[in-house]
Amino acid sequence: MNLSLYKQMMKTNLKGIMSYAAGSAFYILLILGIYPSIAKNTGDFESMIKSMPEGFLNAFGFENGLGSLEDFMSGEYYGLIFIIILSIFSVMLSTKLLAKLVDQGAMAYILSTPTTRVKVAFTQAAVLTTGLFIIMAVTTIAGLAGYVWMIGDEYDFDVSRFLLLNLLGFLLFFAISGISFLISAASNDEKKALGLSGMIAFLFFSLDLIGKLSDKTEWLRNFSIFSLFRPGEIVGGNADVLQTALMLAAIGLAAFAAGIAAFKQRDLPL
């Protein structure tokens, strides 16, 4: 890894990374803030939820109802808003770290220094992973601090399952970032790389969402990486955490390795 490049890229992108982290922390604190009001009227909300179609509940992570704080968080935040925030981050930063630099000609300047393509690509992958880690760390800390601050001992909270939820969330977007990084590494045009990465992420999300709506469409989830991340099952203790973690980590590592190899072998515009 090129340490000087890593420091420069982190300095350049830190403000954007912290903006996503702040946004994620804000939403999770908002969810925690409104939970006591929801919990006091659980019966009314449970009745409303039971009246909704099963497919709708599955699509947005409310299959467990509102039985606990973790159930509420998994449905209200990790089932949708979390996916949107981290998908945008993964696609945007992966494109910015490689395809944008190639498109603008800045990559030629970086490669004119005493370094190699492999070191440059590995360094940019490290920046992307570090940014993702920072967002997830801030989100996790905000969730734990928010619970202590806003909830206290009034309602039970399974910290271990919350940590597992965030761990698998990190690994999910490690895999998504790896796929976006691979596309960026193979592209000369920033807009094309951004568009293709965004389209793939949206396609994965759509297939997973449609697959949740009905038993007849559930087979579509087999083609979506998002189907590996099931917040309701994780907080309910029904998920195979180890298998899911290994699969997501393997996808991410393979995609990043392929991206580095592609960047090493390809022809770059002068």
From TrEMBL:
The keyword Membrane applies. GO terms for molecular function: ABC-type transporter activity. The keyword Lipid biosynthesis does not apply. The chain crosses the membrane at residues 20-38, 77-99, 120-150, 162-186, 193-211, 241-263. One of its GO terms (cellular component) is plasma membrane. Keywords: Membrane, Transmembrane, Transmembrane helix. It holds the Pfam family ABC2_membrane_2. PANTHER family: BACITRACIN TRANSPORT PERMEASE PROTEIN BCRB, INTEGRAL MEMBRANE PROTEIN-RELATED. This is ABC transporter permease.
